[in-house]
C-alpha cells in the first residue's frame, strides 16, 4: 500500500476496558527506584504517566515482526518503512487515575502525514488516547509515531546544548534498566535490549533509551522538585537518542508561563528530550 492510501486509516477507533492493577505499578516502581513503593496500594493515585504500563499491545509470538514489534497492520497503518519510534506526545491530566479503577481507553487515529526530511521519507501517525472512569475523562494524550528508513550508518542530529537549569538530578541508565522497562511496558522493540540487533540492523551505537522512560524520569523529577504541585499538561519531543552507555541527567527550569521546561541530556550536555509541564491552577 502506498503512502497516498494512509489517509484511509484516519478515524480508526479502538476501545479497551481494563483495570489499573497494582502489580504492574509495583514493577515500574522497582524499575525506577521509586521513593515510596509502599504508597502504591488499592485506591492510591497512580503517578502521572504511569498509565503507559497499562493497555499495552499484546500480540501472539507468531505475529511479532523482525524488530520485536507486532507485525504491521491491525489498528495502525501497515507503513512499510522499517524504523518506527514514539516521537513525542501532548498529555492533559483532568483527574487522578487510581489503582484498582476499572477504566475505558478509547484510541483514534486523528492524522497521517508523509514528510521528507534529513532522514528521507517519514510517515507520522498521530493517535489520540482518552482514558475515562464512569464516563468522566481523566487523561487525554495525542501521541506521534514516526516511521522512517534505517540509515546505512548512525548519524545523529546536531547536538542542542541543554540550558542552565535551576534543578538537576542524575538518571541511572544501564542495560538492566532498559530491559526491565521494556518488560513492564511489554515493549518488544529490540533496540532497547538486544545489542547485536540494535547495532547491526538499526545501526545504533548501543542500546537506545526509551522515549517514554525519559518522559517518566522527567515527570518524576518535576514532582520531586515541586511535591505540592499537580501536573495539568505535559508535552515532550525527542531531539536526539540517548544510549545505555550515556551518563544521563535530568534538568528543569521554571519558564515564563509559570510551568517548567524539562530536558534529558548526556554527559556532553546535548539534549535528548525536551519537555514542557504546566501546573494546575492554585496548586
Seen as an oligomer or otherwise, the chain set is single chain
- Note the beta-strand portion: 25-35%
Structural class comes to alpha+beta
Side-by-side strand order of the widest sheet: 1-3-4-5-2-7-10-9-8-6
Question: Could you tell me the radius of gyration in angstroms?
Answer: 18 Å
Nutshell version of this structure?
The chain is α+β, with helices and mostly antiparallel strands and 283 residues long. 15% of the residues lie in helices and 34% in strands.
How does this structure look, described?
By secondary structure, this protein is an alpha+beta fold. Strand 8 (248-254) and strand 9 (260-265) form a beta hairpin. It has a 10-stranded antiparallel β-sheet, with helices on one face. 15% of the residues lie in helices and 34% in strands. The model has no long low-confidence stretch (mean pLDDT 94). Helix 1 runs antiparallel to helix 2 (175-184).
Give the arrangement of secondary structure elements:
Blueprint: E1 13-19, H1 22-32, E2 83-93, E3 102-117, E4 120-133, E5 136-148, E6 167-171, H2 175-184, H3 195-200, H4 211-225, E7 231-238, E8 248-254, E9 260-265, E10 271-279
Antiparallel strand pairs: 1-3, 2-5, 2-7, 3-4, 4-5, 6-8, 7-10, 8-9, 9-10
Helix pairs in contact: 1-2
Amino acid at each position: 500500500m502506498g503512502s497516498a492510501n494512509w489517509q484511509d486509516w484516519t478515524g480508526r477507533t479502538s476501545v479497551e476496558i481494563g483495570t489499573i492493577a497494582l502489580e504492574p505499578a509495583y514493577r515500574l516502581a522497582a524499575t525506577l527506584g521509586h521513593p515510596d513503593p509502599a504508597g502504591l496500594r488499592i485506591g492510591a493515585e497512580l503517578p502521572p504517566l504511569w498509565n503507559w504500563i497499562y493497555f499495552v499491545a499484546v500480540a501472539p509470538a507468531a505475529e511479532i515482526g523482525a524488530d520485536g514489534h507486532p507485525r504491521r497492520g491491525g489498528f495502525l497503518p501497515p507503513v512499510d518503512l522499517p524504523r518506527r519510534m514514539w516521537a513525542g506526545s501532548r498529555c492533559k491530566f483532568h483527574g487522578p487515575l487510581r489503582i484498582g479503577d476499572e477504566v475505558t481507553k478509547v484510541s483514534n487515529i486523528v492524522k497521517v502525514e508523509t514528510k521528507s526530511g534529513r532522514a528521507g521519507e517519514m510517515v507520522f501517525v498521530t493517535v489520540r488516547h482518552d482514558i475515562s472512569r464512569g464516563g468522566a475523562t481523566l487523561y487525554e494524550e495525542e501521541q506521534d509515531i514516526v516511521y522512517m528508513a534505517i540509515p546505512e550508518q548512525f548519524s545523529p542530529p546536531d547536538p542542542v546544548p541543554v540550558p542552565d537549569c535551576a534543578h538537576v538530578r542524575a538518571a541511572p541508565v544501564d542495560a538492566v534498566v532498559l530491559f526491565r522497562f521494556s518488560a513492564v511496558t511489554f515493549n518488544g522493540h529490540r533496540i532497547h535490549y538486544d545489542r547485536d540487533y540494535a547495532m547491526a540492523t538499526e545501526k545504533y551505537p548501543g542500546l537506545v533509551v526509551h522515549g517514554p522512560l525519559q518522559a517518566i524520569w522527567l515527570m518524576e523529577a518535576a514532582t520531586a522538585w515541586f511535591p505540592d504541585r499537580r501536573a495539568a499538561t505535559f508535552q515532550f519531543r525527542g531531539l536526539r537518542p540517548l544510549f545505555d552507555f550515556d551518563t544521563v541527567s535530568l534538568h528543569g527550569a521554571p519558564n515564563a508561563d509559570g510551568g517548567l521546561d524539562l530536558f534529558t541530556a548526556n554527559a556532553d550536555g546535548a539534549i535528548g528530550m525536551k519537555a514542557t509541564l504546566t501546573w494546575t491552577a492554585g496548586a
